[in-house]
Amino acid sequence: MKMSFRWFGEDADPVKLQQIRQLPGVNQIVGTLFDQPAGAAWPEAEIAALKQQVEAAGMKLEVIESVNIHEDIKLGRPSRDQYIANYITTIKRLAKYGIKVICYNFMPIFDWTRTDLFYRLPDGSTDLAFDHTQVQGSAQAMIAKAKAAHDEYPMPGWEPERLDDLATLFTAYEGVTEADLAENLRYFLAAIIPTCEAEGIKMAIHPDDPPQPLFGLPRIVKNRNDLDRIIHMVDSPMNGLTLCVGSLGEDPANDVPAIIREFVGLDRVPFVHARNLKRGANGDFHETAHASSAGSIDMYEIINTLTESGFDGYIRPDHGRMIWGETGRAGYGLYDRALGSQYLNGLIEACAKAAE
Ligand code: CS2
Ligand code: MN
């Protein structure tokens, strides 16, 4: 397994490459061009510069997270073909600079959704949390509520400057069913996978987070059956999954070790996100430190199952707590993800040696 660390770029990330470089056994950066809007063809010069920065710091750049999907592709609008053409251009340019895996998601309107970015844990640290009672009601009611509130920290995706766009987007999704969204994903994959095959790039779709429908929007990457449907939409080793332990694990009905065994066994998992969380009732949860003892997920079982299944792809710690007074991007500070990387490396070494 190749231990990696997500980094948002020199301007967007308070964490420095030189700091990541000092983590033992972390040799891979999961990079992105943070400023590129969904639908853009990524400029080659910026890809080249990112690669150069990472290599100058003594690490490798082989995974990109994320190349975001334009809403017109998810909605199946006629204009999607132009955005798909741009996506293909981006794939070719990334391949030219040695990228092997692209992590992406197919969630309408929002990426991950949390109701609290500063949930306080008993040890005084903070982490991300989800409380279903705060996301009840229609999209219209949610928008009205968000407009009336003057929160210092609105829910991610519900920032005041985005609310008018949100209303338009929600209208566009009226009547779009799960079957429609799945068909639009299939159309996208059918268009891009031949290029991925030619260029040697694996696509790795990220699960919906949380893995349940929200605000009446369709969700199609929630559980084992969804993943099974996706890998068969276009039956190619380049059409793969990001196995996000935390996202899938938020639903107690998901048997994450069984999902690992099945899809790693099929060689469809190029990328793993490893994090822990504590589940509450009704789909509620808060995130925790990575250790098994901190949350509901047995991380030893996760790493041991990956080892037994022969997983040799990229893995990274996922969201971390904010500890030791660190400020910055919630979920993506240095300290707790650094601890997570070392804990995971310990489990990986122990499981590998036990299997020898
Ligand atoms: C990530 C996602 O921060 C996170 O939760 O796992 O934002 C992920 O990068 C995207 O969904 C992938 O497109
Ligand atoms: Mn994830």
UniProtKB/TrEMBL annotation:
Gene Ontology molecular function: mannonate dehydratase activity
Catalytic activity: D-mannonate = 2-dehydro-3-deoxy-D-gluconate + H2O
Cofactor needs: Fe(2+); Mn(2+)
Source species, domain of life: Bacteria
Biological or metabolic pathway of the protein: Carbohydrate metabolism; pentose and glucuronate interconversion
Pfam families: UxuA
Entry keyword Lyase: yes
Enzyme class: lyase
EC number: 4.2.1.8
InterPro entries the UniProt entry points to: Man_deHydtase, Xyl_isomerase-like_sf
Keyword terms, alphabetized: Iron, Lyase, Manganese
Family: Belongs to the mannonate dehydratase family.
Biological function: Catalyzes the dehydration of D-mannonate.
Protein name: Mannonate dehydratase
Organism of origin: Lacticaseibacillus suilingensis
